[in-house]
Every structure is written in C-alpha cells, then in structure tokens.
Specification:
2 copies of one chain form a homodimer. Chain A is mostly helical. The first copy, chain A, contains 10 helices and no strands. Chains A and B meet through helix 6, helix 8, helix 9 and helix 10 of A and helix 6, helix 8, helix 9 and helix 10 of B. The structure holds a DNA duplex (19 and 19 nucleotides).
DNA sequence: ACCTGAACACCGTTCAAGT
DNA sequence: ACCTGAACACCGTTCAAGT
C-alpha cells in the first residue's frame, strides 16, 4: 500500500472508531468520510462495505477473544473459563452498538467481511463449552450456535438503553442456565 | 372521522400489515403509501410517527396478550401460566421483524405511541411472574423489567434468520432459567 | 495507484396548495 | 376536513475524471 493510502486508511479507522462509538454501527459513512477529511470514494476504496469497516474495527477484539479462550482453557476450571469468556464475548459484541446484528448475519454469510472473525469466535466458544460439557458442568443440549446466539442476545440487551441497567443481572441468569445441567433443573427448592 | 378518511385509514393499515410482514418494522413508509394508492401526506396524517403505525398494527395482539394473562391466572398452575404467556409474548414481539427494538425503547419513553401498550403488556407479565414467585416456582431475583427484557431477547433471537432455527430450544433454556429457583441451580448432577 | 465529488436512486418528514 | 405531491435534507453506492 502506498504511503498516502496507508495514512488515509489509518486515519479513517481512527475517525470511524470515534463515530461508531458515538452513533452505533449504523453511523453515516458520509459523516465518517467528512470528519476524516477525505472523499467518500476513498472510504469506499478502503472499506468496500460497511462490514469491512466493522471487521477492521473489531479485529483486535476478536483476536484477543481467541487468545483469551486458549489461555482460559489452560488456567481455569471449565465453569470459570466458560463464564469468564462469555462475559468477554458479550463485551466485544456490545463494544459498538448495533454491531451484533451484523455479526450474527455474517456467521451465515460466507461472503461477509465479518464471516471469518465471527466463525473463529464461535469456534473458540464452542471449545470451552465442549470442555465444560465433558465434565458435566454445562447443559449437554447446547451447541456452539446456541452459545453464540445467547452471547448475541445478551449483547442486544446491553444495546438497549432501557434494558442496560439489568444486563449484568441477566448475564448471571443466562450464564447460570448454561452451566446448569438439565437434570438439576427439576430439583425442588429446600 | 369522515367516511373517506376512515376508508384510507383502514386500507393503509391493511397494506402496512402486508409490507411490514414482508420487509420488517423499518419498511419504507413511502412504499406503504404508494402501494396503498394514497399520498405520502395521508399516511402521515393518520400515523404521524412510525410507532403510531406499529401500535395500530400490534394493538389487537397486545389486547389478546393481556386477556390471555388474566385467563391463565385463573385456569393454570403458576408455572404453566408463566411459560405459556411467555411463549405468546415472544410470538407477539416477533410478529413483525425488528419491532422489538421500538417496543423496548417505548417502555422508557412516555411520548412514544407504543408506550401504553408495552407498559400494559409488561404489567400483565409481572403479575404472572409474581404469582409464580409467591409459590417459589420462579427465581425471586427477577422483576417485570427483567421478564420483559428476556422476552425481548428471545424475540430478537427469532428475528435473526441465522438463529431462528434454534429459537424454540433457546426459549426452553431461558424459560427454564426463569422457573428455576436460585437454590436449585447449585445442585450437582447425579 | 489513489483520490475526488457529482450523480443516482433512495429515505423520513414537512407543508403550501388544492378539493 | 382531508388529500396531494413537491421540497428539503439526508442516506448508500457507483464511477468518470483528475493527480
């Protein structure tokens, strides 16, 4: 990449991070280009679709999440590892408001720029889930797609201003459901 | 309302139901007016905001949901009543793709045309939840807002084409979490 | 190679002008 | 009273023309 192009790319990404943080994943691309001081065509040259921009914004987070999964697999118990990773996955998905919809769409669309990232993220979660299931610590009737869906649901909750205050509590409720084995659910109180 | 206005209102609503069913709650209002054969200003006269249109589309469903709650309170056990009502509430929210975001926003915005409907719906669910909690059949650390949030999360799941196939299963997982008392969750398998 | 911005086909929303 | 559609200020996306 030519030096001037590289500079535009980096600057666009920095501005996009600001704007998307402020306005969400559906922020105006025109506005981003305007605030970056480049032509609209320049933005499209570097990021041909909105997903390409989102992928660039989220890539570092996705990579961290994959590394985190590998680390947790070594260092923590199956339950702690899964819970901790889930919390981080929700945080990544919730990083930019509205981005979760693109992420779940991308996992079923191999042509999306976000496809590879989301697929890798799901695979990392699936490993931690399988490990917990092998020890009987997580519901056996969940698969990686279910886990990804629940991460998405929790990220969606956090994206809604009126629900956000209860998001941490609902994380505990849903994480508890994942870590509860079906046979224990029927148990009566006291 | 004048007879010609009434006719336009009814026809707009019927066309809007078709278009919103096809394209989701963010369908083009221009397109609805066009397909209804009326001027764009006529649509705005009858439905000054998008939420007013959504409210008109959903009102019958909201009313049914309130009636259903009252009926279930008489006829069913606390667990069955809550589960059955939850299923119906998710179905209503999922009736029009994307409508759930407007609904959760409306519950915190008294100026929204959807505010009253959503508030009533939440109150109905809160009663069924409280009844189940009183008999120790539902988690005590949930309130009506949590229940509404979980309905929203499940409706959101169903709105995502890639997650929809697992939505019924995830309904069971989350409904199970609501009906599980915290003390039972810690129980070990076997 | 890369950048620019006009052009195209859309939006939501408002409002003067008509009946 | 009610309806109409032009007008305004926006979009996302493409692409001929420039450097």
């Amino acid at each position: 990449m030519r030096a001037d192009a590289r500079k535009n790319y980096d600057h666009l990404l920095a501005i996009a991070r600001e704007v998307v943080t402020e306005q969400g994943a559906d922020a105006s691309l025109r506005d981003i280009a305007r605030r970056a001081g480049v032509g609209l065509g320049t933005l499209y040259r570097h990021f041909p679709r909105r997903e390409a921009l989102l992928d660039a914004l989220l890539r570092a987070n996705f990579d961290e999440l994959t590394a985190k999964a590998a680390e947790l697999e070594r260092s923590s118990s199956p339950e702690e590892a899964l819970t901790s990773w889930l919390r981080d996955a929700v945080a990544v998905a919730h990083n930019y408001r509205g981005a979760i919809d693109s992420m779940v769409a991308a996992i079923a669309d191999p042509d999306s720029a976000l496809h590879a990232s989301c697929h890798t993220m799901r695979a990392a979660g699936t490993r931690l889930l399988a490990r917990a299931q092998a020890e009987g610590k997580a519901r056996a009737d969940l698969d990686g797609t279910d886990l990804f869906a629940l991460v998405g649901a929790l990220a969606w909750l956090g994206d809604q201003p009126s629900l956000e205050p209860r998001a941490p509590h609902l994380f505990d409720v849903i994480a508890g459901a994942i870590l509860t084995t079906p046979s224990a659910r029927g148990t009566k109180k006291r």
